[in-house]
Amino acid sequence: MKKFILMIVLLAVSVLVLAACGTDDEKASEGTEDQGYKLVNEGKFTFAASGLYKPFSFEEDGTLTGFDIEIGNALAEKMGLEANPVTNPFETILQGLVGNKFDAIIGSMAYTKERAKQADFTEPYYYSGGMIFVAKNNNEITSPEDLNGKKIGVVAQSTYEEPAKELSDDIQYYSSDVVALKDLTVKDRLDAVITADIVGYEAIENGFEIKEVDKPMWVEQPSVAVNKENPELTKALDEALQKMIDDGTYEEISNKWFGRNLLDIDLEGVELLE
């Protein structure tokens, strides 16, 4: 009789343990279903960047890091997901998003009306200006008009490509802005590079013998790009970004990389790239 009672007790304990495990599993998976959004990998927020855009996304000691990567990691944390950053060449990154290779692009991709035909975009997570850079000893180019007929370096499929084409018919394409800026210091390689002001200033701080020309030609709005078939994820990311701004997480990350808040900018009278 005692053995029978012991078996009943053990069976009851087993049922309770299994039930508890089942509850934990349900809690682990209920997040994305309750929010209504889909993920490429369950429980993970997989986001892509080029990995060639220092200080926004780059590899250091075999680890992907940078401002964009830390923003993506923080967004994942706010949504209760595991961060899973991956790399993809910028030239094909939108195609990768449309093809469901990853959930989002957090790779300093500026919102434009043309890109919005292929993907949805969150609110901007920083602002930057499109600026011309030349070699430090170049005194011939002092304005955009001086680029007529000059060789301009840009990253293919970036927001700088079309403005470069409007200024010159001699365009040199790169997969990395850093490499393009470095080529400015090589004699007869390039006349100018058009890229984000932040990237150019970072290169100057790292010893590149280059300088900016005039002032930014426009201000662009880098945002998180999301598959159009996943609007619930766009909404969740906007909510997570706002939480980061409200609790100081965003400012902490921005100050770490740039010593200032990249969202703290006076946009009155400024031309926004669209």
From TrEMBL:
Just give the chief location class.
Answer: other
Gene3D superfamilies, from UniProt? Periplasmic binding protein-like II
UniProt domain Ionotropic glutamate receptor C-terminal: residue ranges: 44-260
Q: Does the keyword RNA-binding apply?
A: no
What is the protein's given name? ABC transporter substrate-binding protein
Annotated signal peptide: 1-19
Which SUPFAM superfamilies does the entry mention?
A: Periplasmic binding protein-like II
Query: Where is this protein localized, as stated in its record?
Result: Cell envelope
- Pfam families reported in the protein's UniProt record: SBP_bac_3
Task: Enumerate the UniProt keywords alphabetically.
Answer: Signal
Q: What residues does the Solute-binding protein family 3/N-terminal domain cover? A: 44-261
- Which InterPro entries does the entry mention? Iontro_rcpt_C, SBP_3_CS, Solute-binding_3/MltF_N
Give the family per the record.
Belongs to the bacterial solute-binding protein 3 family.
User: Is Nucleotide-binding given among the entry's keywords?
Assistant: no
The species is Sporosarcina ureae
